[in-house]
Amino acid sequence: MHIGGLQKMTLLDFPGKLACTVFLPGCNFRCPFCHNSSLLHGIEELSEESFFAFLKKRQGLLEGVAITGGEPLLQKNIHSFIQRIKELGFAVKLDTNGSFPDRLSKLLQSGLIDHVAMDIKNSPEKYPLTCGGMDELEQVRESAALLMASSVSYEFRTTVVAELHEAEDFHKIGSWLKGAQAYYLQCFEDSGSILCPGLHPPTVSQLEHYRSIAGLYIQNTHLRGI
């Protein structure tokens, strides 16, 4: 398993849990607003055994592990990696872009995942534009349907960028994901190392408007990061 980084403690990345966040490098998308662009190319900064040594020292102190990326499901041995985490007694949250429904399905059926946060990049028509020209909409639709039919806690989330999103997109996303457990609109922030410089966050009033639109379809819709 390639590990690109470790945040040793977070109160934000795993809802309701004191957790650490492990970053798995490599991604099949090239979203222009990506703030983790340093993780796209699979550079390893921490060995798997060092990570598990850290977890063993945190047993009884941390409650969970948030697995993010990059795209964690690119890793072919993700199932065994998560199983080792669970065997140490930690809850697991998985972040995913939804482009590997077969691997997601296996994890959902295994009972190894406690919470999934899945990115919804944009309305269906604008998906390739928003994930860097990658046409993965069918896989993303399948993953969204898997989550909505499962008993696992989950959320959908969209990072909102002024140049990429408009009000009509949130009607289309809301209609697509109607009745979902939870949906979050996250305000884009320029980390200084995004793939396509020159993008901007929406205004707070725009975000509120988009939230009200999505809320027509998904009752549990909230803003995050403002």
Keywords:
30% helix; eight-stranded mixed beta sheet; alpha/beta; single chain; TIM Barrel; 226 residues
Give a written overview of the molecule.
The radius of gyration is 17 Å and the shape is globular. Strand 4, helix 3 and strand 5 form a beta-alpha-beta unit. The mean pLDDT is 93. The chain contains 7 helices and 8 strands. The protein has 226 residues and is an alpha/beta fold.
Please give the CATH class: Alpha Beta
Summarize model confidence as the mean pLDDT.
93
Q: Give the termini separation.
A: 34 Å
* CATH homologous superfamily title: Aldolase class I
Order of helices and strands: EEHEHEHEHHEHEHE
CATH architecture call? Alpha-Beta Barrel
How many helices? The count is 7
Helix content: 25-40%
The outline comes out as globular
**Backbone structural class:** alpha/beta
Strand arrangement in the largest pleated sheet:
1-2-3-4-5-6-7-8
Give the arrangement of secondary structure elements:
Blueprint: E1 5-10, E2 19-23, H1 48-57, E3 64-68, H2 78-87, E4 91-96, H3 101-110, E5 115-119, H4 127-130, H5 137-149, E6 153-160, H6 167-176, E7 183-187, H7 204-214, E8 221-224
Parallel strand pairs: 2-3, 3-4, 4-5, 5-6, 6-7, 7-8
Antiparallel strand pairs: 1-2
Helix pairs in contact: 3-5, 6-7
